[in-house]
Write a structure and sequence with these properties.
Blueprint lengths: L5 H22 L8 H45 L1 H4 L9 H56 L6 H33 L6 E5 H18 L3 E4 L8 E5 H17 L6 E8 L3 E8 L6 H4 L11 H6 L6 H11 L4 E6 L3 E9 L5
Parallel strand pairs: 2-4
Antiparallel strand pairs: 1-3, 4-5, 5-7, 6-7
Helix pairs in contact: 1-2, 2-4, 4-5, 5-10, 6-7, 7-10
The structure holds adenosine-5'-diphosphate (ADP).
The site of adenosine-5'-diphosphate (ADP) has 23 residues, from helix 7 and helix 10.
Length: about 350
């Protein structure tokens, strides 16, 4: 009974009607039992008439309407996913099964699409509320400092400098936030192109160490390259973007490091990639935070991050940059022991 079409449905129903009509004719004694010819004539006439009527009714009133629904859904899908559907015939011998399949696929696609839209909506709401919160904190601080100065603190030589320094700190935080947001927006819109070149990641790391030395000195954190890794490792990547990745990760190792701590960078030659690992002996991160660490505005210790001028976007930018290279980044960490951030880059073919 699978794959019924109008002809077979009409055939089966007509057969039942014809048999019933013949039996009724026999039982009402309008025919003699042995009148085989009469039996056959009644059966044949009833069968042919009902077959014709049922077939026409099915074709006209039901199948045409179903075919119309099928074509509408099919065309709707065709418009959306032209490539997937091209090649499939619109006219089928078995429209009922086709309709069933198409409707099922259509419902599944629509369900996925709705789920995606719901997620995007939630993401947008969360992002907006995070954003307003991030802007509100330094703005309200600036407002408070300026009012305090205007209310008389300006004339007190001891405190006015202190309030102006605090105001400058909050303004710097706002600038960092705007810069990081701009970077994320560029990365997400895909408008930022990668300018891949061959370079030595070991030399780049030494350059970034020098650039950040002044900051590391404040907490007396010592940067070094792991023994055995002090040699060139050529990668094929966007040098400026990878510099930013190194800056963000080293900056975090200072912000979340302990006084007199150590940050060690190591390089590993894999089959096609170079693995770069940055290990610190800082405060560490507990297991339950690790899966969300690369999300925008996700912080483990909010007050420490803000105190250190963090925007909560550093790791999100790092992840975007590494993924734009078609590579991955991961983290291992233990509270009180330290953290290791590792990412891969393509090995240069020239090396
Ligand atoms: P932030 O601007 O707050 O530093 P990030 O995106 O760079 O934002 O980091 C997100 C959070 O991950 C930080 O707030 C901090 O809690 C945690 N984190 C990042 N790096 C480290 C690290 N090396 N050691 C411990 N915690 C870290």
């Amino acid at each position: 009974m699978k794959n019924l079409n109008p002809k077979s449905i009409a055939f089966y129903i007509s057969l039942m009607v014809a048999v019933t009509a013949t039996v009724v004719a026999l039982t009402t004694r309008s025919m003699e039992i042995n009148d085989a010819l009469s039996c056959f004539v009644v059966f044949a006439i009833v069968f042919l008439i009902s077959y014709f009527m049922i077939y026409v009714a099915l074709e006209r009133f039901i199948y045409r309407k179903i075919k119309l629904v099928y074509k509408t859904i099919h065309n709707l899908k065709l418009n959306r996913f032209t490539k997937d559907i091209l090649g499939k015939s619109l006219r089928s011998e078995d429209p009922l099964t086709d309709v069933q399949q198409e409707v099922q696929e259509w419902a599944e696609d629509s369900h996925k699409e709705i789920e995606g839209l719901k997620k995007a909506e939630l993401y947008r709401k969360e992002f907006l509320s995070n954003l307003s919160h991030e802007f509100k904190t330094p703005l309200f601080s600036i407002q408070g400092y300026v009012h305090t100065l205007l209310d008389g603190a300006m004339d007190d030589g001891e405190v006015n400098k202190h309030f102006l320094e605090k105001t400058a700190g909050s303004i710097e935080r706002l600038c960092n936030l705007v810069n990081d947001l701009e970077e994320i927006a560029k990365l997400e819109s895909g408008e930022e192109q990668l300018d891949k070149v061959t370079f030595d990641i070991y030399s780049l790391t030494k350059d970034v160490f020098e650039e950040m030395e002044y900051k590391a000195k404040i907490s007396n954190i010592h940067f070094s390259i792991k023994k055995g890794c002090e040699k060139p490792f050529y990668v094929f990547a966007d040098k400026d973007k990878i510099r930013q990745v190194m800056v963000n990760l080293l900056d975090n190792s200072i912000k979340y490091g302990n006084q007199d701590g150590n940050t060690i960078v190591s390089f590993y030659d894999m089959a096609e990639n170079i693995l770069i690992e940055l290990t610190d002996d800082g405060i560490g991160i507990s297991e339950d935070h690790l899966s969300r660490l690369f999300e925008r505005f996700y912080r483990v210790d909010k007050s420490r991050s803000r105190e250190q001028g963090g925007t909560g976007l550093g790791l999100a930018i790092v992840k975007h940059l590494i993924e734009a290279h078609g590579q991955t980044i991961n983290v291992r960490s233990k509270v009180g022991v330290g953290s290791t951030f590792g990412f891969t880059l393509s090995k240069s073919a020239e090396s």
